Amino acid sequence: MKEQIEAGKGRAERVLKNPGRLQKLIASAISRQSSLISASRVPELTRKIQPLVRMVKSYAAKEYREVPWQSIVMSVTALLYFVAPLDAIADFIPFLGFADDLALITAVLASISGDIDSFTLWEQEKADAAETTDYSELESEEQE
Q1: pLDDT tier at 2, thresholds 50, 70, 90
Q2: Model-level pTM?
């Protein structure tokens, strides 16, 4: 598994330096994830990929930059592997096809778990702040 991650890092760095390619990767990962969810296939994989996709998307949008470069590179490496239909075990092989994807994504998540935790906390704080703002705006409108 380490070999696949190391091999993908250079490609991931090139994708990160090209905003168009990064947006295309994010769109591909979201599409792939959605198709797996709708087909009820590999729910564990789709659940695990979600925070990676959201973190890379927020990084690309320059909303969340508090993540170390190495963690973003690892996340993009995992997403590249996830969207590639022909990787160590081809994804069209029933059950086994996604086993390598799940293993790689699990390994990446384990290595950057603190950064994922920080990101999901940031997301929650952002959502809470938006919710508070929305309610206070409603209250001031009602008072008028």
Answers
A1: low
A2: 0.70
